[in-house]
Amino acid sequence: SSGINAEYGDRYNLDHTAMLDNVLYARAFTSEHQMELLDFAAAKCHEEPGIFKLLIVDSVMALFRVDFSGRGELADRQQKLAQLMARLQKISEEYNLAVFVTNQMTADPGATMSFQADPKKPIGGNILAHASTTRIYLRKGRGELRIAKIYDSPDMPEAEATFCITAGGIDDAKD
Q1: Each residue of 7-17: pLDDT tens digit?
Q2: Which one of 26, 50, 60, 155 is least enclosed by Cβ atoms within 10 Å?
């Protein structure tokens, strides 16, 4: 909302209208449409080199779960997912931008045997895991607190950080 944008802009001394001019937003309705939007994003990066620094794909698996349901379509789903992840990696490398992908977690029935405190695992399987450089597990803490845990990274140790989300953006945790 514009109220939240105003508070965020005030916090960082940014012009409120210029802030949104620096954001491109698109919503995909199918996994195929998602791929088309990546082509559009790559074209925008090519047209305006060096302008874009971050590409966010929210809930990367959601459309794949709708478009490919049941075990019979699992191979097709994983193949299309691999193509999407490869495309994201290519865009990232070609245009020197960070890619941030969010995903859903699901209960892991096999984890109960290993006595994990939080037996959940990300959906998308090995395709998503291997295509991701650093994986961070976000969860709700007490009250307004959130916890980010690095649990798979080639160059950072496993660690946790606590933070809160405010109208002005992400902030340090308040004790």
Answers
A1: 888 888 988 88
A2: 155
